[in-house]
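Task: complex structure prediction.
Instruction: return structure tokens for all chains below.
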Amino acid sequence: MEQQYIDFYKESHTLIKQHSAALMNNFRDAAFEKFERLGFPTSKLENYKYTDMSAPLSIEYGLNINRLQFQINPYDVFKCDVPAIHSYLFFVLNDTFYPVNSTAKQHLPEGVIIESLRTAAENYPQLVEKYLGKLSNEKNDGWIAFNETFAQDGFFMYVPKNVKLSKPVQLINIMRSDVDFMANSHNLIILEEGAKAQLLVCDHTMDNVHFFSNRLTEVFAGKNAVYEHYKLENTNILNTNVSNLLIHQEDSSNVLTNVITLHNGMTRNGIEMIIDGENCESLLCGMVIGDKNQDVDNFTEIVHKKPNSQSRELFKYVLDDSSKGAFAGKIQVAKNAQKTSSFQTNKNILLSKTAKMRTKPQLEIYADDVKCSHGATIGQLDEAAKFYMQSRGISESEARLLLMFAFTADVMDNIRIDALRDRMKLLVEKRLRGELSRCEGCMIC
Amino acid sequence: MLEIKDLHASINGKEILKGVNLTIRAGEIHAIMGPNGAGKSTLAWVLSGNPAVEVTHGEIIFNGKNLLEMSPEDRSREGIFLSFQYPVEIPGVSMVNFMRTAVNEQRKYKNLEPLSAADFLRLMREKKELVEMDNKLTSRSVNEGFSGGEKKRNEIFQMAMLEPKLAILDETDSGLDIDALRIVANGVNKLKRPDNATLVITHYQRLLDYIIPDFVHVFYDGRIVKTGDKNLALELEEKGYDWIKKEVETPVEQ
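Output:
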């Protein structure tokens, strides 16, 4: 399966480079060699044991290396109806950053840059070079190497020292194509010392074809920076998504990541939080609602490199029908990372006999003065609680719904944007009721 | 209102109820007393439709309807209420949400419009006063972190909200101090009307000082072995259950 992409790169690397930025091309050939060596990760690899992508990879996808523009303006067709969210709104169409709407640009605080990675790499080469690929280049992962080989653009956000964004930034990834299509994009997010930003990434699909998206995101949170990253996946059963989110934290920074899969086909989220500073706080949350044949694998790693930081991890899955879930929670505490505290929880509910969940906590602790814990459960809905509700006149289906909703409540509570949290609760409730959970005003999905 | 005829029921294949007969009419208060393991709670479970109990024989008619054919939620909507011996904690479900859902599902069953938010909150406030329940408790998750007394008080609060026709209080007095006992009993008495009935299940006579029963039944080995008035409760308190056991187990001389 790799071979067609290898041949394709050999034939068209000049074209790929021509439509990208020099800084992205710098590591392209090296990434290609790495991909040639590693290939697509298969379930034979320990870290990919529960992610079998052979079915989606057997499909032939089109790629848009010539950067042809689409004839839609997302600012016209997309109406996000998270009430009162008032975000700075940006779009990546397939793999291309859509030119910024002038009103969105105007209101950004002084010094903040949000634009296409490709343009940013050309306009601010020194800034971009300092960060781009610094986390991803070192990874030995077939998907990351593949992304670095083919990604030509992406989303770029820079928040300078002590600048605090008062509104969340919303990035909508839209997949739009008439034929089966693959998109690779590389996002770079930089928060300097004392900066503050919230990013909400929404994944949507517009067409009923097979999509494959491979997103690589690098985040740098400087000293005292506060960053929140929300990923809301609400696509369809034909969609396959591979995301790698790599986050680097410096002293006293505070990072929250909340990854929510409401609807999808197959998803692999690789999340790595590198705590490379003291007194950092890291919170990594996620939630999955799966039914039919949905397949979601959250593979997470928290690396404590320095002493005195704390991390907390919370993932919840509700799986029905023949859906499959996997969770891996790797926590590494380096030898000198004393006084680390790290807590991990993964709880799962299986609603049917055919739903499957695999969970794997993995703690590697080399320091001797730390507080770490982990817990994982797989179970069914609490029958006693259900009966208690029924005995008060609540129907069985409503009781189940209340229990499922309650189960996910603590993940929801870790959404710090009020309007988004309220909206998410509504979407989750609709999803659990089996109603279509798309944003109502969103005409494109 | 309620007629239980020759009821046999088992849990995990073990027969617990061995021929219960009981008739309760509107306006009456019945007390069931008996030693541990006699099957008192099992009877309460059968009435509320707990799926853990399997009815093997007999019938229960509630206001002219076959109770055993109804789902637990429909029994509740028809007016059966069980105050649990061990109320269940439901983390993540707020008391408000729980009660609103319950009240509105009951209203839907009766073809009534759901209560408006304002009306619902007014109703909650009114009923909370009845059981002297702390305001904070209703803003928390259902029973989560409640003390034993608070849980029991919460049961009576729910009963006040739902206004059942037949309230079954399963060991509602256990774990209550004397003040909480008085409050709970007062709540029950205030809810008493000529058109509803109460079935009190208890070990001890002390709750019956506050809730005065019309009938006292002694439950032993899966059935009612003796029925009397409130004085029977006093007699039991004085003599214990042993004399009942002896009376039951001694073959009657022909």
